[in-house]
Write a structure and sequence with these properties.
Strand order of the largest sheet: 1-2-3-4-5-7-6
Number of helices: 8
Strand content: 15-25%
Shape: globular
Distance between the termini: 5 Å
Number of strands: 7
Structural class: alpha+beta
Largest sheet: 7 strands, mixed
Helix content: 40-55%
Order of helices and strands: EHHHEEHHHEHEHEE
Length: 212
């Protein structure tokens, strides 16, 4: 039996607007960014500004997966594509003015978060690994299986290549769910000294599907 075709595609500049709007909704309770931006009243304005710049960095580098009716999205870095971005690239997308747009304290927390996440990347990443990055579903559609389908979509690409992958999460409910897809916990602990708890999960390569 032929495996299902991938629904992923390279992320384009035209995707930044809808993906940043979706993530601002979907990640209102996400521990990483709520640690960075704790004030409810300022969340939408500051988070949307940050996600727009972060997603501009992803254009042409990540694969984008759309949930049903664009109620969810997932992104993934292919092997050989680094999730680390240079000073020049951050300058290009406008991230270096973050202190003036989201605040000095928020930018300080964002910097510590990025440093902690980068350390975790270095614990596991090789040129053969896929990295499952963002996955979000708008609140009104959560609990309908869209998030699980986004995981399956991305793993179809991973398994078609016969390569390993990994994911990070700060949501305590997710490691058991990822375990159902074959992920194992490699590291558990704060992402940085005063940051949220993080789980680094790894999935070994599976044999490539054979044509029918």
């Amino acid at each position: 039996m032929q495996p299902p075709a991938s629904s992923g595609r390279p992320m384009e500049a035209a995707d930044v607007e809808w993906t940043s709007a979706l993530m601002t909704q979907a990640f209102f309770t996400e521990p990483y960014m709520r640690w960075v931006i704790p004030e409810d009243a300022l969340w939408e304005k500051k988070a949307h500004w940050l996600y727009t710049r972060i997603l501009r960095l992803c254009v042409g580098r990540v694969r984008l997966y759309e949930g049903r009716e664009r109620l969810g999205l997932g992104t993934m870095y292919p092997p050989g594509v680094s999730p680390f971005y240079s000073f020049f690239k951050q300058l290009q997308v406008g991230l270096l003015v973050a202190p003036f747009r989201v605040g000095w304290k928020e930018t300080g927390r964002l910097t510590r978060l990025a440093e902690g996440v980068n350390r975790l990347h270095k614990m596991v990443r090789t040129d053969a690994h896929w990295y499952l990055d963002y996955a979000g579903v708008v609140p009104s559609a959560q609990g309908q299986g869209i998030g699980s389908e986004l995981v399956r979509q991305r793993l179809r690409d991973v398994d078609a290549a016969g390569q390993p992958c990994y994911v990070m999460t700060a949501q305590p409910a997710l490691p058991p769910r990822y375990a159902q897809f074959g992920f194992e916990v490699l590291h558990e602990g704060p992402v940085c000294d005063d940051g949220p708890k993080n789980w680094l999960l790894h999935r070994e390569a599976r044999p490539k599907p054979q044509p029918a």
